[in-house]
């Protein structure tokens, strides 16, 4: 495991986990919104892709237990970049939102043919597709 650790962005009510969840546990969801009130929309925000399951915590390759895993795609200058966040249940029964260092961002089941990718301008489509292919 890397010595680089996630940084806590804030905590939110556990009910916010439903903003990136569907009935099927850990089924990827793509949305044009940020799912957590603790996150502020970054410049160039494009979309969020991730999954969640409040009743089935998962341990990541980095060793963190989480109930939410999201990737925030954004335009950064001429390129598309990705930020990753996980949501982990705290002892106070809230959801801690942790920003994952860029060196620890794996591909998260986003498919090249996902409709949100094809709805982007052509240059951004290509950049997002390159991110997906290289993970």
* Radius of gyration over all CA atoms, rounded: 14 Å
Low-confidence stretches: none
Q: What is the assembly state of the chains in this entry?
A: single chain
H/E topology pattern? EEEEEEEEHH
Mean pLDDT: 83
Going by helix content, strand content and strand pairing, the class is mainly beta
Largest sheet: 6 strands, antiparallel
Query: How are the strands of the largest sheet arranged?
Result: 1-8-7-6-3-2
End-to-end separation in angstroms reads: 18 Å
Number of strands: 8
Task: Classify the helix fraction into a percent range.
Answer: 10-25%
For the record, the count of structural domains works out to 1
Report what the structure shows:
By secondary structure, the chain is mainly beta. The protein has one domain. It contains two helices and eight strands, in the order E-E-E-E-E-E-E-E-H-H. The strands form two sheets. A six-stranded antiparallel β-sheet has the order 1-8-7-6-3-2. The longest helix has 12 residues, at 122-133. The two termini are 18 Å apart.
């Amino acid at each position: 495991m890397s010595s680089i650790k996630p940084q806590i962005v804030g905590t939110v009510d556990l009910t916010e986990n439903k903003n990136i969840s569907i009935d099927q546990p850990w089924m990827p969801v793509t949305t044009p919104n940020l799912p957590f009130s603790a996150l502020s929309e970054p410049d160039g925000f494009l979309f969020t892709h991730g999954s969640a399951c409040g009743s089935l915590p998962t341990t990541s390759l980095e060793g963190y237990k989480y109930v939410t895993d999201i990737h925030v795609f954004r335009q950064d200058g001429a390129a598309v970049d990705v930020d990753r966040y996980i949501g982990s249940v705290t002892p106070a029964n809230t959801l801690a939102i942790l920003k994952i260092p860029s060196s620890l961002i794996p591909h998260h089941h986003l498919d090249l043919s996902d409709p949100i990718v094809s709805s982007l301008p052509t240059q951004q489509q290509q950049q997002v597709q390159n991110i997906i292919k290289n993970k």
